[in-house]
Amino acid sequence: xxxxxxxxxxxxxxxxxxxxxxxxxxxxxxxxxxxxxxxxxxxxxxxxxxxxxxxxxxxxxxxxxxxxxxxxxxxxxxxxxxxxxxxxxxxxxxxxxxxxxxxxxxxxxxxxxxxxxxxxxxxxxxxxxxxxxx
Length: 134
Prior knowledge:
Layout: H1 2-5, H2 16-24, H3 72-87, H4 89-97, H5 107-128
């Protein structure tokens, strides 16, 4: 972000919560957002889909990940604890203050999402022609 503000690089992709102060102070200009719909915080900024790049649509997600083989009862207890935390008003308000909207997914739903996102972004990277540096 500092390199964009300083004119050393042309653009960056980051979270709205991270960039919002710099956007509000006119140090940065938001060009697009990656969510399926416009942000309530930046309602005048189009989405990638609206700008003609639907393949770049993406949501930022945070989740709790444990090692493979973690006992099911441990996973279930962690899931229950996270659900309870996300239901707390103070947690919800804190997350919204960071421009994060709490959404709950079961461990199975989150696993499917990770697999789907991995496949999608692998295809985007391949289509871009990107080659790793040697």
